[in-house]
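Section 5: illustrative case.
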């Protein structure tokens, strides 16, 4: 799955009814404050029995959580494996090519987001055959130009992007963990997602926090790309904890960063 597949629309089963108010000393851009109206906690993609709360949760641990390990996005890897499982299980290819593959319990038909998995399954098998040189010359039967057009249409479709983002969001909370404590993002969501969102927003929107990043960039300690990756990781976590707060927080950080460069 390509990096572009991370973007799309959220799969939100969040039942928390919230109101985002803007209060701040800034005149043009306000800091979002999350106001809870009921007792439902956090942003969940899958519902199940209530879990025991983890007692080692801290803001520092939350901020340090990252999907990357040795430069590899573990959530993207898991998403790719999950998609391959869906392909191998499709009836059009399963019995002939992958009879021993069993279903990954983490995905349901609803998670496919209307994506034509049957078309992808056929195209992937045809691509594999076309790249071989079997003695019976089955690979010569594949029209490679047509196959390339089919794959391009699939990989550039809106449904592909929706599917990628849906899988990424579904796996992120359980895959992303602190190496020392084994605390996952799901632990923060189960504890009180909106409350943790408000706490991390409070830290992120302090001018001193952004100023430290600007100083690191100016001094060459981090690159602009590294800064963007760090911000993306923070906003993905914020999206999981409380989706409605992402846009106003993003706007505020842009405003603060603009003032820091002056």
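Designed sequence:
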């Amino acid at each position: 799955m390509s990096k572009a597949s991370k973007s799309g629309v959220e799969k939100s089963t969040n039942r928390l009814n919230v109101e985002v108010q803007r209060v701040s000393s800034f005149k043009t851009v306000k800091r979002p404050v999350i106001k809870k109206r009921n007792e439902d906690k956090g942003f969940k993609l899958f519902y199940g029995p209530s879990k025991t709360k983890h007692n080692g949760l801290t803001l520092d641990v939350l901020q340090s959580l990252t999907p990357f390990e040795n430069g590899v996005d573990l959530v993207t890897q898991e998403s790719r494996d999950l998609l391959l499982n869906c392909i191998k299980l499709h009836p059009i290819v399963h019995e002939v090519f992958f009879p021993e593959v069993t279903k990954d319990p983490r995905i349901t038909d609803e998670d496919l987001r209307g994506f034509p998995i049957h078309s992808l399954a056929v195209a992937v098998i045809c691509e594999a055959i076309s790249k071989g040189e079997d003695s019976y010359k089955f690979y010569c039967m594949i029209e490679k130009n047509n196959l390339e057009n089919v794959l391009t249409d699939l990989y550039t479709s809106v449904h592909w992007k929706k599917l990628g983002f849906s899988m990424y969001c579904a796996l992120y909370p359980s895959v992303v963990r602190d190496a020392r404590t084994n605390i996952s993002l799901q632990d923060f969501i189960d504890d009180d997602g909106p409350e943790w969102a408000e706490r991390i927003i409070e830290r992120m929107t302090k001018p001193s926090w952004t100023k430290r990043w600007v100083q690191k960039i100016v001094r060459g300690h981090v690159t602009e790309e590294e800064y963007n990756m760090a911000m993306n990781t923070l906003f993905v976590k914020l999206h999981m904890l409380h989706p409605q707060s992402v846009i106003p927080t993003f706007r505020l950080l842009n405003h603060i960063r603009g003032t820091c460069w002056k």
